[in-house]
Amino acid sequence: MSEHKATVVWKRNTPDFTYKTYSRDHVWRFDNGIEIPGSAAPAFLGNANCVDPEGAMVAALSSCHMLTFLALAANKGFTVDSYEDAAVGHLGKNANGKMALLSVDLHPNIAFSGAVKSDGTPRGLTIK
Fold first, then answer.
1. pLDDT value at position 126?
2. Measuring CA to CA, which residue among 44, 47, 42, 45 is closest to residue 27?
3. I want to staple 85 with a disulfide (CB 3.0 to 4.6 A). Which of 6, 14, 21, 108 is the partner?
4. Which domains does the chain have, with CATH numbers?
5. Percentage of the chain with pLDDT > 90?
6. Residue 78 near residue 70 (C-beta atoms within 8 A)
7. How far apart are CA 91 and CA 100, in angstroms?
8. How many other CB atoms are there within 10 angstroms of residue 3's CB atom?
């Protein structure tokens, strides 16, 4: 099992602290020294020049799926030339009426090279 850590840092930078005035800007720090500017989505009074948590969650799920797919394809002998996923997350109210990321739709577009079947799919490819 592996462990993954991130530190999230926020500091008040205004004299007042009200819902409409406090800054949503913050920083995500990772063990490898990378820092990513984060904020709420603009619809929730955030900064459009930063990554919002919901977008990051969608990207993380898409990235995890892609890396798993690439590993499986490589282990099965397929040659993947490119992988692009236009993932979409759906934010809404859950069964308890609380805002939540309810689902993420993945839409991978994958290009292979090498031996193909008559329908254009790589030989031996099974999509489940």
1. 53
2. 47
3. 108
4. 1-51 (no CATH), 52-128 (3.30.300.20)
5. 80
6. no
7. 6
8. 5
Q: How far apart are CA 75 and CA 52, in angstroms?
A: 34
pLDDT at residue 125 in the model: 58
Q: Average pLDDT of 51-57?
A: 97
Tokens of 38: 């984060």
**Residue in the block written with tokens 């984060």:** 38
DSSP string, the chain: -----EEEE----SS---TTTS---EEEEETTS-EEEE---GGGT--TTSB-HHHHHHHHHHHHHHHHHHHHHHHTT-EEEEEEE--EEEEEE-TTS-EEEEEEE--EEEEEES-B-TTSSBTT----
